[in-house]
Design a protein that fits this description.
The chain has 6 helices and 3 strands; from the N terminus they run H-H-H-E-H-H-E-E-H. The protein has 141 residues and is mostly helical. It has a 3-stranded antiparallel β-sheet with strand order 1-3-2.
């Protein structure tokens, strides 16, 4: 077995152990909330519906790819994102506007010359990336 493959297996075990612990913690927290509070069906339905907009946005093509690229690169310009992702300008602009509107991405304008627009993740965007990783990991297995 190559050392690269062994490292990959070791890393996978570490990630799975950490995710298992985190999921157990989330489950325990939710159980305590449900035990201590009586939640009516209307409240539960409203909570689920409030999550739907975020899930719809994040499940659209390019959204998670953009967030993960910004997570890995920290700050990027429009053309840098376009080049890495291979997406057309209109789609990229629309997705970035939507991600900014929902609080996942910061847009900063450097007056230049030349005028430059840079994008970075907000705290919310960073947290979404970190929370989506286990979901993507488990769904790919």
């Amino acid at each position: 077995m190559s050392s690269k493959h062994a490292l990959s297996n070791e890393l996978r075990r570490l990630v799975e152990t950490r995710m298992e612990s985190t999921l157990k913690g989330i489950e325990d927290t939710l159980q305590r909330i449900f035990e201590n509070q009586e939640i009516c069906l209307e409240d539960l339905k409203a909570s689920i519906q409030s999550l739907e907009k975020s899930f719809n946005l994040l499940s659209q093509k390019w959204s998670l790819e953009m967030l993960y690229t910004l997570f890995l690169k920290s700050i990027m310009g429009f053309n840098g994102l376009k080049k890495i992702l291979g997406v057309n300008s209109r789609t990229l602009a629309n997705k970035l506007k939507s991600l900014e509107k929902h609080g996942y991405v910061n847009r900063t304008i450097d007056q230049g010359p030349p005028l430059r627009v840079k994008y970075s993740l907000t705290t919310r965007g960073r947290n979404i990336v970190l929370l989506a990783l286990p979901l993507l990991y488990y769904s790919s297995n």
